Amino acid sequence: MEKNKSVEEFISKKSEWKESLELLRSIMLSTEMKETIKWGAPVYTIGGKNVIGLGAFKSYVGVWFYQGVFLKDERKKLINAQEGKTKGLRQWRFNCMDEIDKKLVLQYVDEAIKNQKAGKEIKIEKSKDIEIPNELQAVLDTNPEVKVSFGKLTPFKQKEYKEYIATAKREATRISRVEKIIPMIQGGVGLNDKYR
Hints:
By secondary structure, the protein is α+β, with helices and mostly antiparallel strands. Helix content is 41%, strand content 15%. The longest helix is centred in the middle third of the chain and has 16 residues, at 102-117. The termini are close together.
């Protein structure tokens, strides 16, 4: 994940999409939304709530509507990039600058702002806690130092480790994963901290 500190920095790193991003940004800035950077990319908010995000990849530049599921989308522009996983988020992808219809994009953005002000949002369901896998529990039972270190981790980091072990299908893989994470647990590091 890129660690951009500003929207200008984000755009400068996406030179092939510079004009498209600047156009999309101008549309967002023409509204009452506040501009910020989250997860290394431009995000536009109302009352501290994420409404719109901008992204750029090799083959397209896009607008993310965080609660896009509530948009009418009469022109059928929006897609769910992760069918079955993503509940509220919808994307509108552009393969070239000519595809960006400023007036139409602004209509979608205005509707998204109205929906946010009306409180239309899908609440993220808290996932259920995962049992500690037997392979990890065995280490915690026999190694007091690892047990104390694991107990000091945030519940989120503990869950990441439990999922990492539990998702391995073979016992040998679960055991090798436990061996790999022990130093990380003792160091107070989360499984995916290097990506944050």
